[in-house]
Amino acid sequence: MPRAGRGLLWSALLGVVSALAWNPSPAGLAEQPTQTGRLQLDELSQAFRPEYTGYMAAGWMFLPLPSQSALRTEWGVHEGFAFRQRLAAWLTNPLEKTPLRLGLAWWVERQGWDSEDFVALPAYGRFGRVQSVQTLGMTVADSARRWGAGAGIQFLNVEYVGQSQLPADDSLYWWSLAQWGPATVRSLYHGATWREWHLALDLQARALRGGASSGWKTYLPDLDAMVSRRVDGGKGEYPDDRGYRVAWEQNLYAQKCYGVVSWAGTFNGERESLGYSGDVWGALRFHPDVSHLVTFDVTATSADGGVLWGGGVKLPFVRVAYNHADDYQNFFQARGLWVVEARLAIGSSRDAFFELGAPKRAPAESLTRKVNGNFDKGDVERGHVEPGGDAP
Amino acid sequence: MIVDKVQRAKREVQSLSHVVAQAKTVPGKFSIFNFQFSILLLLSTLLLQGCLTHWIVDGEVRMQIENRSDVAIAAFSVVDKMGNRSVWVPDTLWPGEKSQVYADEWVGSFRLGLSARDSVDAQGDSCWRFVELGTFDLEGGSSLAQIRRSAGSWSLEVK
Prior knowledge:
The complex is a heterodimer of chains A (392) and B (159).
Chain A: H1 3-19, H2 26-47, E1 54-62, E2 71-73, E3 76-78, E4 81-94, E5 100-114, E6 129-142, E7 147-161, E8 171-180, E9 183-190, E10 193-202, E11 222-232, E12 236-253, E13 257-266, E14 280-286, E15 295-303, E16 306-314, E17 318-322, H3 325-330, E18 338-349, E19 352-354, H4 377-382
Antiparallel strand pairs in A: 1-4, 1-18, 2-3, 4-5, 5-6, 6-7, 7-8, 8-9, 9-10, 10-11, 11-12, 12-13, 13-14, 14-15, 15-16, 16-17, 17-18, 18-19
Chain B: H1 2-25, H2 35-48, E1 61-67, E2 73-79, E3 85-89, E4 102-104, E5 108-120, E6 126-138, E7 141-150, E8 153-158
Parallel strand pairs in B: 1-7
Antiparallel strand pairs in B: 1-4, 2-3, 2-5, 5-6, 7-8
């Protein structure tokens, strides 16, 4: 292609990317940690199953141009970068002479807006905001009896608040969860005051959890109900400011096509916090494979009295989305924006790997090494076993 | 400032080249494929990444203003929705004068204004009035703002 043509192409591309931009607000940035904490516990609840042995995830949102997420304040529109970086790990180890597995969980997300982009070292610009949410805890599970329990802390840390950003205090919460069969009960407390209660029923049969791999049981729904109460960093309680969220996930075809609907609101009809402010959102998801490592989806979410349509593609190492409901809820109400996220999210159940909520393991090539007949354990340890022989 | 950055980048590339050359010349001890070198490379990348696009996109405006009007001006400011002002260039400039360069993070779209000398009172003190210049898109990097007044209306041209 001639140089002028390439220049024109790049200019057109940059023009399109710049046009598809949105302006986060200081209020949206300040409200986000509450929803992020909830998301981390939602993920932890899904990753922590008595039948599973581990989960690791990472994500890094990349917006290449400072005009894509320019911050709108009372001073005007500031070019810069909204960012979201996250890591998650849940690792388990069997407890000797017992059927139990002990686990350690750590979810962390650093998010905000800054005048320059970064991976680890923020610029802490004049109008920036840098905050993080961490969820830590321990779990114990018995896969034979299909029960598990966990507890820990959630820490909302306001690292840096620049000019025009809303002030906020650090917050420390306590969480606990218990699972038995398909049921999960979860709570979040701030001191002695309850903040959230969840009840989830994962009725859909999943082969990974010892359920049926086909048949009518795979068409049972996964249900999630939550009630919540706003607590303002320990300063005061809002007894009437209580909210709810009800979600229904339904297998529509062969555990490859799913429909998800979520209703949320407040009991007093007022806005409570980001993510369930009278929100209704739905998604239609298609997974080419039952391990759910690849996802194509279309989403719709209520936003400012209208409906925001979006969609995306999720691959094992990258996610590309436009106007996606997840980004609206988890990335400062982003809309009209192409998002590219470098990501990894993989759960394990001994030698099987899968995406959260998947019914079956990912297709994996297994290597069988045949050995010659007469050898002892010492041969294996010394590496004296030769491949390719006949099995004894 | 840009020259400084280029020089710094050159030095970093040179030191990295030295490390790579060392990795090639001492096989086994410091191979490009060995674990320590990978960690070093990762750490270097992390340290360099403080601002990935900062090499091509500037995060601040280095502003110099030039008074091409026929009256003295001062306190070149950014104005918010409520009319509050944040002074950017504090210098007082007589006609024909240029200010010093002041760097700040006003990259984006903002309302700008300044104080213009209106009259002189009986004691000989200057009386100033605030003039709004309008909303301007400001790009990162060095900018020269020329301020003019003709037939009582003010204009600003950012170069």
